[in-house]
Amino acid sequence: MRMKCLITGLAAAGGVSAAVAVVATSYSTEPVLPTLAEAGVWEPAPLTPPRFVEGPSYRLARTRPGSAPDFRPPFLPAVVRNDAPLTAIEPPLITWSRKMARGETLDAVLAEAGLAATDRAEIALAIGAEYDLRRLRPGHAITVISTTDGSPRNVTLVVEEGIRIEALFGEQLATRVVAPEPEIVTLAGETRIETSIFGALDDAGIPARFAVDLAQMLGGTVDFRRELSGGETLRLLWREARVANKAVRQPEISFAALDLGDALYEIAWPEDGTGKATIYLDGEVLRVFSQPVEGARLTSVFGRRKHPVFGNVRMHTGVDFAAARGTPVRATAPGSIAFIGWRGGYGRVVEIAHGADKLTRYAHLSAVPEGLAEGQRVSAGDTIGRIGATGTATGPNLHYEVRVDGRPTDPLSDDRLAEAAGRATPDTAALTRLRAARARLEEQLASVIAANPNERL
């Protein structure tokens, strides 16, 4: 009953609303504007139909029966993982370098480089362990590499012969010694003797120390005071070790030819380091002689002299050769070991017997080869000891004596010992060495003349 009444009410309300709308329309008196009337009847112009142009036709490819479409994912580049740690960035470094002047100390130079006192002390201890700082000389070079805050990274001291002592700063301070590899240069020269061999060599710019080598080799065979009257010709071939075009060691003579006019003496030194030289007279083997210390400097000759330690004048019974500690000492002639041991002021000594009446003594030795024993046979050039300063000596040197019938004889003038060494050399090999040495000398002299056409040798 209620539903029926509700529907009847809604219908009556709808009728009333429609009646009101009709009445309102019929009673409106407002006129319509002409422009609105025109807009109400406007229609757009008809569209022009499109033109079709002939062109290439495309046909969709059909999938072959039984084949499935490819739904693979698109290609993606592989991701490479780098687990290496990033390189540490080194701080910028500053290099400071200069040569030492007279009277300067290492500490003063390092202070000028801006290093702290503690760093200077560490560097001095490190370098001093490898090089005696009391030997510092003008011209030695110091190079300091440090960071901008003054922390040292590398300190280098360059001393004699281009040797570098480096102090390296890292987790720990380390020191190393670096010796440059020298270039071996062969040189030749010719000179005319007017007063002495020493003066002739010096005037020609040839190392004057070669006069000592010639005196050793020819002493007792050539009387330099009587047989050199002037005008004799001397030609030499030698080797020099150089670093940066500067000689770093004593030069080593290879060949010498002394023309006296009526006799030609030639000496060929070996290149194998044995120091055993062959002496020729007019192209024939005269004898073989081995220097006791190769490349050493003769510092004292045979005869009376003022003793370097005691200060009084006494007889010097041999000759002294100065060389670095540990330099090999060689037998000058074949023989047998007669004594090894200590003899007072001679220090450690090795004595070699050459027959029944001749003996050589090698004194102030620092060491003797292991296995060397009394009674053992040795040849000329065999190592029988090392340079030292044992006994009464002011520094490392070899005191070399020749004794005949127990009496000391001048090693540079007596040739009887050298004759003992000459009997063991095969003539064929010796003559082959002589021809090769002559050829090298001529070749080197020719190159000198070609390089200096206006220079007279």
Automatic annotation (TrEMBL):
Name residues in a coiled coil: none
Name of the molecule in the record: M23 family metallopeptidase
Cleaved signal peptide residues: 1-21
Please provide the record's keywords in A-Z order.
Answer: Plasmid, Signal
The record's listing under Gene3D superfamilies reads:
3.10.450.350, Glucose Permease (Domain IIA)
Q: Lineage from the top down?
A: Bacteria, Pseudomonadati, Pseudomonadota, Alphaproteobacteria, Rhodobacterales
Establish whether keyword Signal is in the entry: yes
Q: Which domain of life is it from?
A: Bacteria
Q: Does the keyword Iron-sulfur apply?
A: no
Q: Which residues form the M23ase beta-sheet core domain?
A: 314-411
The family database entries (PANTHER family) matched by this protein are listed as:
L-ALA--D-GLU ENDOPEPTIDASE (PTHR21666:SF289), PEPTIDASE-RELATED (PTHR21666)
Q: Which CDD domains match?
A: M23_peptidase
